[in-house]
Amino acid sequence: AKAKGRNTFHFYSQELNAAANERLFIENELRIGLKEKQFVVYYQPQVDSRTHQVVGYEALLRWFHPTEGAIPPDKFIPIAEATGLIVELGEWVLQESCDFAVRLAEQGLENNISINLSARQFKDSSLVTTLSKMIIKSGVSAKRLHLELTESMLMGNVEAAITQLHELKALGISISIDDFGTGYSSLSYLKRFPVDILKIDRSFVKDIPEDTNDMEITAAIIAMAQKLKLDVVAEGVETIEQMQFLQNNNCFIVQGYYFSKPIAEHELPNLYERLNEL
Ligand code: C2E
Ligand code: CA
Ligand code: CA
Ligand code: CA
């Protein structure tokens, strides 16, 4: 029994070591990757399901590592966040997204670009100045920019969060609450935060039409958003049944594999063609 205990411990510490090593590896490679431009921003369309028109895109970061291949954001974003590298990486995503919005505008396309903000970026006191400089330099129309925040980012220091949101909104930017329904914010807080859009989390959408609880929750979120005069976007929409359920409940802007995965900018012509045929 003793020997087994030791073996178990040995095995466990090896696992911990492997996790720590992977973390360290990713941290180092992140710095290199930033310098060597291994990152690309992909864009996933948000589509009006009635007309199949693209209303906007969510910017989603992709890392193509020379030897590891594609490393998913869930693997590197938390490490970038913990090490503070997310600030530099996040600024780069903001810059790319502004430039993308300008290129679309030059083609006469007034699409919104939604950008994920990390907790660290949101708390950073220089965020507003950085953004305001970026808006001027790129020439993007600020009303095209939507920042996606999660509930937990707003709940720590509520007063500071409200101030920061007002300053961002003063630039002309819109605010989305990402993964809505999965966090801890209460409805009374939601009313105090100057937000514009709720994004219904994929976890509520994915089991429609089998899970009646999820359907009730989704319908309730949409109804509440309407009462609060917020726009609502459903994420993770993969099937026509899900889309129809959302339509029947007055949610028309959807994002998900049903219309398109996140794509590189050069794939936009294929996207338009696909949306025309659907
Ligand atoms: P998120 O903000 O909730 O983004 C939505 C995620 O759902 C994306 O995963 C997207 O590819 C995926 N998705 C969209 N539609 C569907 C669908 O129909 N089915 C399924 N199964 N998945 C769908 P992705 O790109 O792997 O990103 C994961 C997370 O990483 C994001 O979750 C976000 O929290 C974070 N992230 C990505 N890019 C950035 C970034 O530039 N900055 C920050 N701070 N976080 C980012
Ligand atoms: Ca998001
Ligand atoms: Ca989300
Ligand atoms: Ca998420």
**What shape does the CA trace take?**
globular
Number of strands: 9
What structural category do the secondary elements indicate? alpha/beta
Spans of at least 5 consecutive residues with low confidence: none
The largest sheet is: 8 strands, mixed, barrel
Q: Give every kind of bound small molecule, once each.
A: ligand C2E, calcium ion
Please give the radius of gyration in angstroms. 20 Å
Terminal CA distance reads: 63 Å
Main β-sheet, spatial strand arrangement: 1-2-4-5-6-7-8-9
Strand % is 15-25%
Could you estimate the helical fraction of the residues in percent? 40-55%
- Sketch the topology as an H/E string, one letter per element: HEEEHHEHHEHHEHEHHEHEH
Number of helices: 12
| Overall pLDDT score | 93
What does this structure look like?
β1 (39-48) and β2 form a beta hairpin. This protein is α/β, with parallel strands linked by helices and 278 residues long. Helices cover 53% and strands 20% of the residues. The protein starts with a helix and ends with a helix. The chain is built from 12 helices and 9 strands. Keywords: Cell membrane, Membrane, Transmembrane, Transmembrane helix. This is EAL domain-containing protein. It is found in: Cell membrane.
How would you describe this structure in keywords?
278 residues; alpha/beta; 8-stranded mixed beta barrel; 12 helices; 20% strand; globular; binds ligand C2E; binds calcium ion; EAL domain-containing protein
